[in-house]
Specification:
alpha+beta, six-stranded antiparallel beta sheet, 24 strands
Length: about 700
């Protein structure tokens, strides 16, 4: 796979003049007239197409990389263009004010959430090396130095350019430019097959092991060998005549090792070609701005660990108590238990009719009917009529999960995709099995919510499946953990407008077990790339935080210094920020198959830093207020809507991770260190050591 650009932009065809709207690297929107030339396939094995263009408002020559509507319907093709755009923006952000910016193509703009997504580059500099038969010895050294400079710069960003070939390396006689950014992968990710022999390393060609910066060293060595000899080298070993070529033999002998572990790093080779160059790179790359926020996050966790943990309520981090069969009604908050004289089922017209189970002698039929039955709750005669699924009353205390946020935050889409992932078996790697509490209710939820969203339709705001003006009941499931214990899990939606309008929704909080606070980036983050979304939705940045967050947190009951609930904060609609660090990193992570507490804390730290830096401490109030709280990025749709639909369908990304954290904090998923350490981190040796005052007191008591 080559991804070679057009090296010499041609005069665009005037008949192809059109107006183009796109986002520039700063995040601002730009509309410009443009004329495009003829289009060509970028590579026979790649879906992207390329054409030269001229932005008439500035007379700027550009290259457009785009997908046709047919190709864009393939999520894998969109993912390639997304990855390329993300890499180009990342390199622009890091290198724009340095001498190294010219080593890579310069991005001009992009528009990805559309039927025919594209990105724009400035015109390429130089000619593809594939057109050079043999390079002079003087040029060889400069070429090799620049090539290793580029690889070192990528390595420092944790990136590896996998598609290096004579078609993707451009040379203008004095310096080079590296294209093929669609082939960039993150260091440490599983290798996938990419590239062509002999330019891709043997491990990369087989798709074995993890991505390593020395994969690109093999590719660079093969390109240099061809430029020196005029012919390609062997695909799996060092060329037999390597010793006959001094420049290659002096610097690249180890680069042809069949395994990455046997090859030198890009920094090592750069040091041979240009001593001190790697150190200059380190000095020129911008300093890490996240350190103060990382320290603040570590301090917040330390305070939580030092505070005494509240005694858990029934069901919080322990199996539910079924001794008396009583549970808390999630609506009226009174205790109820199974009453066989108050059961109902729905008929074909969705009307409740009384059920008398005493006449059902077949145990299998009785079990099936009882699973779909509901009980009328009469615990509070002054409360509006409401019904509870029978499985709620037969498996101990339900675990109630409340979604919190303003109506525009995308809670409904997030929760819909979360439940869809569960029904697709997303909990199985963690030892959990699921079953619907009420089959009819679950089937309706799938039919009315899951299927339309998966087909690319934008969902309407949830009208509520429960009581008007109250916490909206959305769905409930029975989860069976690895020990065979069954627990009902119920999901509720707390809209910000309901919390302000009625006190009933606030009373619901007295019995809630877990909360998912959904942060809308358009409301929280004053980043320019979100301005277009804010304008489209009629929103403004709110520096004071989400009103719903504050209302809920002020009402949560406390059993000690912190409320005794588990919480997860989710930076939703993260596709809007998929090119913004650290969101770009986490959205690209593969779904986990096991919960790693250290990994969860790392994501929490990164999201905490992003919000603290750009949004302010008000948006972090749930994390500061609640002891057991993790932070996540998630996108329910993978992209933005266009005319009421998602052009590429709704592709969820990392929607299940917040719920996995809550289940771990409630003991349904066993994690290293236990549920408490999972939430607040392990106590360090320094924290465990008693203070001098404590040691002195202890010594006096011992006497």
């Amino acid at each position: 796979m080559t991804g070679s650009p057009h090296s010499h932009p041609v005069e665009p065809d005037r008949s192809q003049r059109t107006s183009l709207a796109f986002t520039v690297p700063s995040g601002r929107r730009r509309i410009a007239p443009v004329r495009f030339g003829r289009e060509s396939r970028r590579d026979p094995l790649l879906p992207q197409r390329m054409r030269n263009g001229l932005l008439d408002d500035e007379g700027q020559q550009v290259v457009q990389v785009r997908l046709t509507a047919a190709d864009a319907a393939n999520p894998a093709a969109r993912a390639l263009l997304d990855a390329e755009t993300g890499t180009a923006l990342h390199l622009h952000r890091v290198l724009v004010d340095t001498e190294y910016a010219t080593l890579f193509p310069r991005i001009v703009g992009h528009e990805l959430d559309t039927a025919e997504p594209f990105l724009l580059y400035a015109a390429p500099r130089g000619t593809a090396a594939v057109r050079t038969h043999v390079m002079s010895a003087t040029d060889q050294r400069v070429f090799a130095r620049d090539l290793m400079l580029g690889l070192c710069l990528l390595e420092r960003q944790g990136l590896v350019l996998r598609g290096i070939s004579p078609a993707t390396v451009l040379w203008d006689g004095t310096s080079l430019q590296l294209w093929g950014l669609e082939g960039v992968a993150r260091t440490g990710r599983p290798r996938t097959r990419w590239g062509r022999a002999p330019y891709c390393s043997p491990e990369q060609r087989r798709g074995e092991g993890l991505v390593d910066s020395r994969d690109a060293v093999w590719s660079a060595a093969q390109v240099l060998y061809q430029l020196v000899t005029g012919r390609p080298g062997p695909a799996d070993r060092a060329p037999a005549d390597l010793g006959e070529h001094r420049v290659l033999a002096e610097t690249l002998r180890g680069a042809f090792a069949p395994l990455a572990a046997g090859r030198p790093t890009p920094a090592r080779l750069l040091d041979l070609l240009a001593p001190g160059a790697d150190r200059r790179i380190a000095l020129s790359v911008p300093a890490d701005e996240t350190r103060p926020h990382r320290e603040a996050f570590a301090h917040a966790l330390r305070l939580k660990r030092q505070a005494p943990a509240a005694a858990p309520r029934d069901g919080a981090g322990a199996p539910a108590d079924r001794s008396n069969g009583e549970v808390l009604c999630p609506y009226c908050l009174e205790t109820i238990q199974l009453d066989l004289t108050s059961l109902f089922v729905t008929d074909s017209k969705m009307q409740y009719r009384a059920l008398d189970p005493s006449g059902i002698s077949n145990p299998l039929r009785r079990q099936d009917i009882m699973r779909g039955a509901v009980q009328k709750c009469t615990a509070d005669p002054d409360f509006p009529e409401h019904f509870i699924p029978v499985p709620y009353l037969t498996y101990g205390r339900p675990l109630t999960v409340a979604m919190v946020g303003q109506s525009s935050t995308g809670k409904s889409h997030l929760l819909t995709q979360m439940i869809a992932e569960i029904t697709d078996g997303g909990l199985e790697p963690f030892g959990l099995q699921w079953q619907s509490v009420n089959p009819e209710q679950h089937a309706r939820f799938v039919r009315e919510r899951v299927q339309p969203l998966r087909n690319g339709k934008v969902l309407d705001h949830t009208g509520g499946l429960g009581l008007d003006g109250f916490a909206r009941f959305v769905e409930s499931l029975l989860l069976t953990d690895a020990r065979g214990q069954v627990r009902p899990v119920a999901f509720f939606d707390l809209g910000g407008e309901d919390l302000v309008r009625t006190d009933a929704a606030l009373r619901f909080l007295l019995g809630v077990d877990a909360m998912i606070f959904v942060v809308d980036p358009a409301l929280a983050l004053p980043l320019p790339q979100l301005d277009h979304a804010r304008e489209r939705w009629g929103l403004e940045v709110n520096r004071d935080g989400d009103l719903a967050f504050g209302t809920v947190l002020d009402r949560l009951p406390k059993n000690g210094p912190y409320p005794d609930v588990a919480a997860a904060m989710v930076l939703g609609k993260a596709d809007l920020l998929r090119f913004q660090p650290p969101v770009d990193r986490w959205l690209g992570e593969a779904p986990p198959t096991a919960l790693d507490p250290a990994r969860i804390r790392e994501e929490s730290r990164d999201v905490y830093g992003l919000l603290r830096h750009h949004a302010g401490q008000a948006w972090l109030r749930p994390f500061d207020t609640i002891r057991r709280c993790t932070l996540h990025v998630a996108s329910a749709t993978g992209g933005q809507e266009e005319h009421g639909r998602y052009p590429a369908g709704a592709g969820p990304r990392r929607v299940l991770e917040p719920l996995l954290s809550l289940l771990a904090m409630h003991g349904l998923i066993e994690v290293t260190g236990g549920a408490e350490a999972f939430a607040v981190g392990p106590v360090s040796a320094r924290e465990a050591e008693p203070s001098p005052e404590a040691r002195e007191t202890g010594g006096e008591e011992a006497k």
